[in-house]
Structures are given as structure tokens and as C-alpha cells.
Amino acid sequence: MKNVLLIEDDQDIKDLLEIHLKDMECHLTSSVNGLQGYEMALREIFDLIILDVMLPEKDGIEICRDLRARQVTSPILMLTARSEEIDKILGLETGADDYLTKPFSIREFLARVKAIFRRVEMLKQPEELFPVIHAGKLEVDKNKRKVTLEGARIELTPKEFDLLYLLASNPGRSYSRERLLRLIWGYEFEGYEHTVNSHINRLRSKVELDISAPRFILTTWGVGYRFNDEIPSI
């Protein structure tokens, strides 16, 4: 049974989503208040957080940003009645995993939720074993979705981990922002290159000792990013 947190202040939408999530046999916790929902997200581990953007007391963008800052790595699906591209960009740059603009069909909503659940299940039960990547004192274990630096565990969001693993498993190979968008986020986010920059900056803040002089994640000027291929494995 998946543990889901729904933070939505539109009662009609909330009731409708609750019905379908319960039909999926989800254990559901819900709130119509942003601040209350944020506090719920800090107290418990959820397989999915469904988060509206426009909320009383604390809006969804702020909630998402603060949850990621507090190392909450649960997948976040953002909902909004807004259609402006800037809101989509903000949602993705603050760490959301997926984004739906209202009005949306229940079929589309359920497809997004099921896709996230499949990814969560794959993380728990990897179908194949991958070698652990060692780069200096950085260790990336895809099987456990675990990253350690000098023996200390680093908590990454799903997208941050996927981004790090892709780069680290192909050291020296440069990826454009557009290519990273397609590989990590999917084609539907094409054109939001600043999302990659934001995630790279957040990733560097976690794995680099000095983000002004990164050792692991390097910038390939005029192209995008690459993982340093000159770090010895130890």
C-alpha cells in the first residue's frame, strides 16, 4: 500500500482525487492548508506528495522548495490552475518530479501517479545489480539509491540522484542541457533548460566541498555538464 499526502484546497478536486487514490488502495493523508500540509510532510515518509500551487498560509512552490531544503526526498507531483510557463519552471526548479496544469483529466492524473509508483517500486526492487561507482571519496550506489561522501550519506531527491548517476556512470562525457532534460525529465519538459541548471547547482551544493570550484560535476562551456574523469577510484 502506497502512502500518499494530498495538499489541495479546492474541495471538489480534493474529494475527486481522494476517491481515485483510495480506489488504488493508497493510504491517504490530506490537508487543505499549505502550512499544515508542509508540517505533515516533515513528520512522515510518503511514497508521493501531491501538491497544489495556490494554497492558504504557505504556497506549493514554497512548500516544495522548503521540503527539498529539509532533505525530504519523496516524489512530488505539483498541481496548478496557472498556465504560465514561469510557474511550471519554478515548480520543476524547486524540486518537483512532475507537473499537471488544471484542468486535467483523471486518466492523465492516474497515469502520472502510476508512473511515479512504478519508479518508486523499481527503486525498492532493482531488477539488476549495478556496480557501485567510486570517484575519490564519493560513492554512488544505484542498487540502494545511496550516495556517500567521505563515509557520510548524502540525501538526494530522485531527480538529483538520477542526474548524478547518469553523469558519474559516463565520466568525461559532456551532456547538453537539452539532452539531460530528455534523459532525466522526459520530452514533455523540453525547453526548460534552467531546470537543469537549478538541479546541477543544488546537486553541487550537496556533493562539492567548494561549489565555486567543483571537483566532480564540471561545466563544459558552450555545451553543458560532465563528470570529472580524472578522479581516481579508491
Summarize the structure.
This protein is α/β, with parallel strands linked by helices and 234 residues long. It contains 8 helices and 12 strands.
Question: How does this model look, in words?
Answer:
It is built from eight helices and twelve strands. Strands 2-1-3-4-5 form a five-stranded parallel sheet, sandwiched between helices. A four-stranded antiparallel sheet has the order 6-7-8-9, covered by helices on one side. The N and C termini lie far apart (40 Å).
What is the chains' assembly state? single chain
- CATH hierarchy: architecture of the largest domain: 3-Layer(aba) Sandwich
- Compute the number of strand runs: 12
As a whole number of angstroms, the C-alpha radius of gyration is: 18 Å
Query: Pairing-aware structural class of the strands and helices?
Result: alpha/beta
Q: CATH homologous superfamily name of the largest domain?
A: Response regulator
What is the secondary structure topology, with strand pairs?
Layout: E1 3-7, H1 11-23, E2 27-31, H2 34-43, E3 48-52, H3 60-69, E4 76-80, H4 85-93, E5 98-101, H5 106-124, E6 133-135, E7 138-141, E8 146-149, E9 152-154, H6 158-168, E10 175-176, H7 177-185, H8 193-207, E11 217-220, E12 224-227
Parallel strand pairs: 1-2, 1-3, 3-4, 4-5
Antiparallel strand pairs: 6-7, 7-8, 8-9, 10-12, 11-12
Helix pairs in contact: 4-8, 6-8, 7-8
